[in-house]
Amino acid sequence: MKLIVSIAMAAMTVVSCSSVHDAYRTETEITGTKVLIGRFSRTVLEKDSSFKWFHTGYDRYTPETIPLKFLAGRSSELRFVLFIGTWCSDSKAEVPKMFKVFDALNVSSDRIELYGVDRMKKCDDDAQAAYAIINVPTLIVYAGKKEIGRIVEQPREVVESDIVSMLRTVR
């Protein structure tokens, strides 16, 4: 019986997710806020009308050119893990900017892991514990397999400048 339930749950997860890497669920709070929990792709934010803030923030942001020029030749060595709360004002403000920077650098989607957390900052698979997530958004930047830095809640300057600073510490 447990096997049948496990198979059924796995099948529902595959059916409800938009890509092979997605393993998320949604909750709708009493206020109507849609909360994504687990790993999902950017397309979920782009296609779901509950996340209009993503398009608005993305369209309004213009990355700074000097940091982008510095990062352009180095972006292929970078990998990103991003934890967000679709309910969180900092996530709504910063996540679209992060994706605008990723796009300006032509970062492929396979180098970005995106996780949603609930208000307790937890995922169903405990990914947040593995990455020691305390606040959202948290952008973890890797050069190769080494973590070189994090942006937690808000960048010190702007996303692209903060990533430049991280790279300079490892060179």
Summarize, please.
This protein is α+β, with helices and mostly antiparallel strands and 171 residues long. Helix content is 41%, strand content 22%.
Describe it.
The protein has 171 residues and is of the alpha+beta class. It has one domain: Glutaredoxin (3-Layer(aba) Sandwich). It has 7 helices and 6 strands, in the order H-E-E-H-H-H-E-H-E-H-E-E-H. The protein has a 6-stranded mixed sheet. Strand 1 and strand 2 form a beta hairpin. Helix 4 crosses helix 7. The longest helix has 16 residues. The chain is globular, with a radius of gyration of 17 Å. The termini are far apart.
List the helices and strands and how they pair.
Layout: H1 2-16, E1 23-28, E2 34-40, H2 42-47, H3 52-60, H4 65-72, E3 78-84, H5 89-104, E4 112-116, H6 127-130, E5 138-143, E6 146-152, H7 159-170
Parallel strand pairs: 3-4
Antiparallel strand pairs: 1-2, 2-4, 3-5, 5-6
Helix pairs in contact: 3-5, 4-7
- What CATH calls the topology is Glutaredoxin
Helix content: 40-55%
Distance between the termini: 55 Å
- Name the CATH superfamily classification: Glutaredoxin
Number of helices: 7
Number of E strands: 6
Beta-strand portion reads 15-25%
Keyphrases for this structure?
7 helices; Glutaredoxin; globular; alpha+beta; disordered N terminus
